[in-house]
Amino acid sequence: MAFFTRHARVSVDEKKIDELLFRGVAEAIVKEQLRKELLSGRRLRVKLGIDPTSPNLHLGRAVSLLKLRDFQELGHQVVFILGDFTAVIGDTSDKDAERPMLSREEIEHNEHTYKAQVGKLIDLSRAEFRHNSEWLESLRYRDIGEQADLFSVADFTARENIKRRLEAGKRVSLREVLYPLMQGYDSVATRADVELGGTDQKFNLLAGRVIQERHAQKPQNILMNPLIEGLDGRKMSSSWGNVVAIDASPADMYGKIMSMQDTHIGNYFELCTRIPIREVVEIRENLNAGTLHPKEAKMRLAKEIASLYHGKEAAEKAERSWVDTFSKGGMPSEALSISVSRGALLSDAIATTGMSKSEFRRLLEAGAVSEIGGAPISDLNFSVTRSLNIRIGKHRFYKVELI
User: Fold this and answer.
1) Do residues 294 and 388 share a domain?
2) How far apart are CA 156 and CA 260, in angstroms?
3) Structural domain includes residue 189
4) What is the maximum span of the chain, computed from C-alpha positions, in angstroms?
5) Which of 46, 141, 280, 389 is spaced 20 to 30 A from 38 at the CA atom?
6) Nearest-5° angle of CA 301, CA 331, CA 273?
């Protein structure tokens, strides 16, 4: 069933709406109200904002982007906000230390490919893509003062991570207090009916409801997604480097998924793919019962995720490369080629790829550098006397060829 509005066709399929409100949702405010609005056929404005604090979006960010796409596929108006102004201030919702202020040059560098990355998951031709500097840059001190009056210092310091920092004697800047006000005002400027975000964003999301009421707008509904674990088991975060970037090559994406911890497979199927939820339930049940091997499940997961961002053909090629490399001891076709003169130091050759010599030395000492099919290399002064296929760690491969 569909409800026709003047500008768009909005689906009111009850099963799809129920899955929208269930899949990957840790908390909803206010769930029953949002369900009624979705069933009413009214076209909602659904907002998601991301600050360009690093050049690459990762799967943790994509959890909310996929939910944004779910709304778009039902016919709702999605609004993606690139937080070029809020990135200057820095959100500390998920941090145990103060974020450094970013310069405008850093932000411009980081956001350069964001539109293309977001476009991997949502149809940009049917979306509003906004920069929040459009409205935040023109606010006056009086505007900010009126918004700040809606909250107390106790409201801010009661947040778990802020409270922890204060108790540990760590600095909390007044700048950080401004962030929830700005994110909340984004909802006013875009007249959001729904805002999406992670559970770590709860205070900021609720601030939007309060500030909307102050501006005589109906408070937005909120859908919060759980945070996914990174490759090292901690929360996926660019600052920790434990991420799977959504613009990574198919082979890199596939390989990193295969290296993740087995305990996270079910969550990734639910949050990072869009295979039917009934299949996700079956995969979880079979993993728990021992009738599905984790390696087999991860191969399916890696292929699904690589297909989502690069297409089926590229994902299948990445799978073949992974099998040849890790199951048969081969060399991936995407390995980087380095040309060197006979007798050159391997450390100098690898340095041409951008790896620092100190990192190479650390990996060498850890036994993570080896010739494929051979023993680990441990000599920092190892010289190249013949062509070599080198593996460093789990995912880096180099063809070192003599000139």
Assistant:
1) no
2) 35
3) yes
4) 75
5) 280
6) 10
Nearest to 75 by CA among 19, 2, 133, 15: 2
Q: pTM (2 decimals)?
A: 0.80
Q: Are residues 59 and 113 in the same domain?
A: yes
Domain boundary among 225, 240, 262: 225
Q: Which of 327, 356, 377 is a domain's end point?
A: 327
Q: Is 41 exposed, middle or buried (0-12, 13-18, 19+ CB in 10 A)?
A: middle
Are 278 and 150 found together in one domain?
Answer: no
- In terms of domains, do 319 and 390 share one? no
Range(s) of the domain holding residue 285: 250-327
389 and 308, same structural domain?
no
What does each of the 403 residues of the chain score in pLDDT, given as a tens digit?
Answer: 333 333 457 989 999 999 999 999 999 999 999 999 999 999 999 999 999 988 999 999 999 999 999 999 999 999 999 999 999 887 766 556 666 778 889 999 999 999 999 999 999 999 999 999 999 999 999 999 999 999 988 888 888 778 888 888 888 888 888 889 999 999 999 999 999 999 999 999 999 999 999 999 999 999 999 999 998 888 898 878 889 999 999 999 998 999 899 999 999 999 999 999 999 999 999 999 999 999 999 999 999 999 999 999 999 999 998 888 776 666 676 678 898 888 889 989 888 888 888 888 888 888 888 887 677 888 888 988 888 888 888 778 888 888 8
- Residues paired with 48 in a beta bridge: 80
Do 323 and 340 share a structural domain? no
- DSSP letters, 150-173, are TS-HHHHHTSHHHHHHHHTT----
Counting the structural domains of the chain, the total is 3
CA–CA distance, 293 with 77 (Å, rounded to integer): 41
CATH code where residue 354 lies: 3.10.290.10
